[in-house]
Amino acid sequence: MNKILVTRSSMPDLDEYIEEIKDIWDTHWLTNMGSKHKKLETQLKEYLDVENISLMTNGHLSLELGLQAMNLKGEVITTPFTFASTTHAIVRNGLTPVFCDINPDDYTMNVNKIESLITDKTCAILPVHVYGNVCNIEEIERIAKKYDLKVIYDAAHTFGVRYKGKGIGSFGDASMFSFHATKVFNTIEGGCMCFHNLSYEKELYKLKNFGIKNETVVDGIGSNAKMNEFQAAMGLCNLRHVDEEIQKRKKITERYRKNFQGTEGIKLSPEQKDVESNYAYFPVVIDEKAFGVTRNEIYDELKKYGIYARKYFYPLTNTFDCFNGKYDVDKTPAALYISKRVLTLPLYADLLMDEVDRICEIILSMRKREL
Ligand code: T4K
Hints:
DegT/StrS_aminotransferase, three-stranded antiparallel sheet, 2 domains, dTDP-4-amino-4,6-dideoxy-D-glucose transaminase, PyrdxlP-dep_Trfase_major, EC 2.6.1.33, alpha/beta, transferase
């Protein structure tokens, strides 16, 4: 039985990649901001429609160093309905995460709850464009302005998304994209920070290279987060095909939507106004009362057929063992509700329509069935 996993990395033809990396054998330049790194930076700046960009070895370190570059202190308002990375980037910077609940419809930060969480220690808001759903940008901007807060978006899921015609990474003070193998666009591992303020450029360049300013001066306590030339080469190849990949994902998403249309107990992500989507994920929320079986039962049943859906994002980050009960999950009830019911179904460019139909048939056949 062929396994169907939640996603499958997009890869260029082997010949295309070999052609792209050939000159590395002439130059022997493997990493430390080489020519491919520079070329990809220029191309991504244009593709993502952002003013400034700093490439890194992964999305997580982009976020962690992005926060460090802003020299923030105190509390950061964020959501727990995300991957471990978002919360860990805050905590690893010595900052305190303050968890805001999410909207039950698009799973992004509930902007009506932000102001009540602001204290004199709040320094920033870190919302997540989760699954590629765009946050309420205008309202977040209004609140940030009113209270003089920085806004850093976790845009890990929104590569290529546009809002009102503009690149999603151009909003807020900064946005982090992930180019991990599981993302719409990958550089194997990889990521970037996009930002407006040019002073962050120098700071990030330094921080991703140990804080080294020049051969004799080290004036930052940095990390090692440089994207290497093989990663950048993968990016240069994948970027040539990403639009086509997104179109394929769109067709698959449409098929899922058609198959599930009007099914009581299965809630789909909204199609957002003014948003050009990248079709990054296909989450469904199962209302066990209306549908008759739970999310976990569907997850287990699919596995019997070799189909590996994922519970992104369960558990919530504010319940992680590493935080030893420090955060009160009852303060984020919508996030808790969704995390217990959401299932992310397989979605990648090469997924066959027959496979989509089979996944939907298995799920739909479980409706109100006694297991
Ligand atoms: N913020 C958010 C909101 C994020 O979702 C993420 C990452 C980040 C920040 C941090 O960005 P990075 O530092 O990762 O750039 C995966 C990814 O590792 C992670 O990047 C991603 N979010 C998260 C949502 O998913 P796992 O633990 O589920 O990965 P894994 O190994 O179970 O892989 C999932 C499926 O992907 C596999 O079943 C098959 C497929 N796959 C996986 C790999 C590793 C491939 O097809 N090729 C591969 O090479 O976290």
